[in-house]
């Protein structure tokens, strides 16, 4: 049960981190950005994916969330819910992007656990590290229009891989 709880926490965290996809940069000239990377990501998103355990077992997961953007697109708060057939997780994430660096915090609301997020963003993807008391996860996120692909690896954990695809429902 603890293993599934950690896996679902990682999924919710990844979905929350997916909000930092920087494809929303508005360019002026060749190198100057006029809007933050979160500018066009506000709204509701939902999707599903698979958790793969170290022993090869799989479980489906479903996620939905709402993202609120501030500070000209440079900050975002998200509230996410993910569930599998046997578990639910609710999480809030606050992330700030400065240049290509992102940083923030996450809180899992039902279990009162929290952690940090750090990483680097490019115009089409992000690579981030999420840390908490019970796990560290390496995240890769790509966004194309209203679709996000999220991949998570958690070295040393019983959860070897997580894959989730999210689509935007409304803005």
Output the keywords:
two-stranded antiparallel ribbon, Lipocalin, single chain, 171 residues, globular, 10-stranded antiparallel barrel, mainly beta, 1 helix
Mean pLDDT: 76
Could you estimate the helical fraction of the residues in percent?
Answer: under 10%
Rounded to the nearest angstrom, the distance between the terminal CA atoms is 36 Å
**Judging from the principal axes of the Cα atoms, what is the shape?**
globular
Largest sheet: 10 strands, antiparallel, barrel
Helix and strand string, N-terminal first? HEEEEEEEEEEEE
CATH fold title: Lipocalin
What does this structure look like?
It is a single chain. With 171 residues, this protein is mainly β. It has a single domain (2-170), classed as Calycin beta-barrel core domain (Lipocalin), CATH 2.40.128.20. 9% of the residues lie in helices and 61% in strands. The protein is built from one helix and twelve strands, in the order H-E-E-E-E-E-E-E-E-E-E-E-E. It has one helix at residues 2-17, and strands spanning 26-28, 32-35, 43-53, 58-70, 75-83, 88-98, 101-108, 113-121, 125-132, 136-144, 147-153, 159-170. The strands form two sheets. The chain has a ten-stranded antiparallel β-barrel with strand order 3-4-5-6-7-8-9-10-11-12. Mean pLDDT is 76; it is low at 18-33.
């Amino acid at each position: 049960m603890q293993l599934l709880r950690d896996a679902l926490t990682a999924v919710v965290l990844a979905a929350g981190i997916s909000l930092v996809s920087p494809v929303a940069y508005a360019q002026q000239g060749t190198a100057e950005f006029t809007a933050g990377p979160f500018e066009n990501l506000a709204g509701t998103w939902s999707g599903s994916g698979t958790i793969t355990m170290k022993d090869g077992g799989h479980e489906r997961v479903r996620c939905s969330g709402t993202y609120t953007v501030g500070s000209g697109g440079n900050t975002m708060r998200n509230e996410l819910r993910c569930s599998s057939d046997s578990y639910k997780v609710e999480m809030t994430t606050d992330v700030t992007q400065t240049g290509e660096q992102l940083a923030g915090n996450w809180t899992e609301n039902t279990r009162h656990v929290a952690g940090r997020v750090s990483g680097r963003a490019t115009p089409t993807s992000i690579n981030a590290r999420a840390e908490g008391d019970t796990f560290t996860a390496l995240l890769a996120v790509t966004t194309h229009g209203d679709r996000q692909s999220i991949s998570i690896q958690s070295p040393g954990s019983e959860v070897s891989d997580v894959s989730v695809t999210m689509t935007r429902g409304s803005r």
